[in-house]
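U., I forgot to send this yesterday:
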Amino acid sequence: MKKYNVAVVGVGAVGIEMLRSLRQRKFPVGNLSVFARSSRDIEVDGEKISVKATSPEGFEGINIALFAGTEGEKGAAVTFGPEAVKRGAVVIDNGADFRMDPKVPLVVPEVNAGDIKNHKGIIANPNCSTIQMVVALYPIYKKVGIKRIIVTTLQASSGAGRGAVEQLKEESIKIASGGCDNVHVDVQNNSMPQQLAYNVFPHIGSFAEFEYTNEEWKLVKETHKIMHDDKIKISATTVRVPVRTGHSESIYIETAKPITPEAAREVLSRSEGVIVIDDPKNNLYPMPKDAEGKDEVFVGRIRKDPFVENGLWLWCVADNLRKGAATNAVQIAEHLI
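Result:
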C-alpha cells in the first residue's frame, strides 16, 4: 500500500485524537510530523512523540496536513494552511475559518464525500454538532426529504477545550466536598462564561443575528452547504452541559413525505456510521458516556409527533472529539487517497 507523509498541527484535545485515529484506523502513514506553537515532547497512550514548532518549511514533503483547529478564533490554518498547500500538501482543517468559503468543500464523508474532488488544496471539517446531526438525518433526507429541523444540542465540556474539562472537574470536586446544599462555587480555572458543574446554560459561542449564537448559526449554514439544500428551515438552541465528552442532540424534523418511526429505524440501521439504540422501555437509548471513544453516531428515541403530520423526533449522541472532529478529518483523508 502506498504511504503518505502526514502532518498533524495542534496537540490539544482534537490533535491528540487525530493521532489516535490515524493509528487506530491504520491510515497508511509514511513519515508523521507533529507541529504546535512550540517544540516539546509529548506522550500519547504511552508513545513518545516529538513536537516541532510550526513553520512553513515544516510542510516540505508533506502530502496531507490535518489542522486540529480552534473554534471562535483564527486557527493555525489561516497562517500555515496556504503555505502547506504551496508545498504540495492537501490541508484538512478542523477550524471554522474556511467552512463557509465557497471555494472550500465542507465534508462529512457519509453525506457528501463526492465534494472532496472539488478541493483546491483545502478541505474543511464541519462543526462537531453539525457533523453528528447530518450523519443522523441524511439517510432520512434521501428517503423522504426534510422540510424543517428544530434542534437543541447538549454539548460536553470537551467541546470547549481542556480548560473547560478542568473547570468542570474542579467545580464538581469542590461542590461534592462541600455537601449537597452548596451548588455555587468559584474556581481558579474559569474557561466558561458560567459555572458548569451541577448546571446547564444556553450559551455556546458569541451572540449574533436574531439573538442566536454563532454556534447555532453553524448548524444552519453548515447543514445547508453539506446537504446542498438551503431550503431546509433550521432553528437551533445550543446548550453547555456538565458532561466530559459526548454531545447529545434532541432533533425534531418535518419530512416532505410521510415516514413511520419503524421505517426510519430501518433506514438508519442500514446507514453507514450510524448505530440505532432504541428500546426505551428497557432503558436502552444513546448516552454520551457510552459514545465516548467511539466513531459512530448513535440514534434513538425515534418517535412520531402525534399532533403534526410528518413530524418526527430523534435523539442523537456522538463523541465530539472523535466523529465530531478528529475521526471525520481522518475519514476525509481516507477518501482523498
